[in-house]
Amino acid sequence: MSASDLETLLRMIGPSIEKKATSMRDPISSKERLVVTLRFLASGDSYHSLMYAFRIPVCTISRIVQEVCAALYERGKGEFLKTPSEEEEWKTVAKQFQDTWNFPHCLGALDGKHVVMQAPKNCGSLYFNYKGSHSIVLMAVADAEYRFLYCNIGCNGRVADGGVFGNSSMASSLEAGTMSLPAASPLPGRELNTPYVFVADDAFALKTYMMKPYPHKNQPALNRVFNYRLSRARRVVENAFGIMANRFRVLRRPFNLQPKATTTVVSAICILHNYLLRSSHYADVSDHEDSAHSIENGSWREEGMPEANLLPIEPAIGHNHSLSAKSVREELKEYFVSTEGEVEWQYKFI
After folding, report:
1. Among 94, 119, 163, 346, which residue's beta carbon has the most beta carbons within 10 A?
2. Does residue 29 surpass a pLDDT of 90?
3. What kind and span of H or E run contains 276?
4. What is the dihedral sign for C-alpha 200, 205, 208, 213?
5. Alpha carbon of 323 to those of 209, 318, 320: distances in Å?
6. Among 211, 207, 238, which Cα is nearest to 226's?
7. Residue of 161, 199, 108, 172 lying closest to 319 (CA atoms)
8. Closest of 55, 18, 51, 58 to residue 34, by C-alpha
């Protein structure tokens, strides 16, 4: 983070975290409160380590981190974590996916992670997940440039992963048709009206607005082409999580916080992730493709995703997908192997 980025953040949240001086003592400055919090998020150091570095008591640091993280989310969500609300805004997102990842009518890539924490007090098995640890769920939609368009944070880890999305405000809006998505239209060179969609992996159900790969191995060649093209678009959200875990090291160990406090911290990290994407160097650790479109792994993969602390969403099983959802996937598949939709390198990667 540059000095100017820090000053911009300070101007944004300073009034919310500033404390008044009293006759007894002067308060810790807003800048030091912000710096302590950023140090905690970026390094993953314990409160006790920060106590020695900043000479601030542990109990005070714990309050500072929560207050600053809450202020970052409340002050930043309107500007840095704003879900598109108009059709033209969604079309801009779709154009980015078309231009960058050759996937038309794509409005975002969806995925989720279980954020592991130590067993909360007096919560029984409420946060006990399928991997045998305790967690809250972070579910997010990313655009073509790794920016989060929507985040759902704090659902208890015991809820089945498909249910996390099903119970989210986004799922409700999609089912009700209130998200102002662009109207269905034909793909380039095609005649059938095709809806705009989100792309996801096997953890989610196939819907007319949600595309997932064909399951199992040994698929026909055309199905493998679809899976390859979808994976290029879906990789952005995987990289978004990887970048975030690389830059904010607190995500690389279990949180020693209560669920509400963990939710506050993760929410602030999502805001900072989007804020720092304006920097030309923040996302340098992401995957990229060479001139032959072979994937070159980003440096975040050298350390790997901290699977012990950011668990993947469990694959969904037993879904009976609707015929309309399957027909949308078939239309996209046919487009990807048509003259208008194919890319010359796709066949060597299937």
Report:
1. 94
2. yes
3. helix 259-276
4. positive
5. 13, 15, 9
6. 211
7. 161
8. 18
Q: What are phi and psi of 273, to 5 degrees?
A: -60, -50
Whole-angstrom CA distances from 186 to 173, 177, 182, 199, 247 are 23, 19, 12, 18, 40
**H-run or E-run covering 140:** strand 134-142
How confident is the model over 232-269, as pLDDT tens digits? 999 999 999 999 999 999 999 999 999 999 999 999 99
Number of Cβ within a 10 Å radius of residue 257: 19
Q: What are phi and psi of 12, to 5 degrees?
A: -70, -45
- Here the tokens at position 39 are 């140090």
DSSP letter for each residue of 98-118: HHHH--TTEEEEEEEEEEEEP
Residue-wise pLDDT tens digits, 199-210: 999 888 899 999
> Tell me, what amino acid is at 4?
S
Neighbours of 276 (CB within 10 A): 20
The helix/strand/coil state of 186 is strand
- Residue that wins the pLDDT comparison between 253 and 320: 253
C-alpha closest to that of 341 among 236, 229, 231, 232: 229
CA atoms within 13 A on the CB side of 1: 21
The amino acid at 224? R
The tally of CA atoms less than 13 A away on the side-chain side of residue 25 is: 3
Nearest to 35 by CA among 25, 274, 251, 56: 56
Contacts 24+ apart (CB under 8 A), 193-196: 194/105, 194/328, 194/331, 194/332, 194/335, 195/105, 195/328, 196/90, 196/94, 196/105, 196/106, 196/107
Residue with tokens 């946060």: 127
Q: Are 201 and 208 in contact (CB under 8 A)?
A: no
Alpha carbon distance 227, 247 (integer Å): 30
- What is the C-alpha to C-alpha distance for residues 329 and 44, in angstroms, rounded to an integer? 42
What is the total residue count of the chain? 350
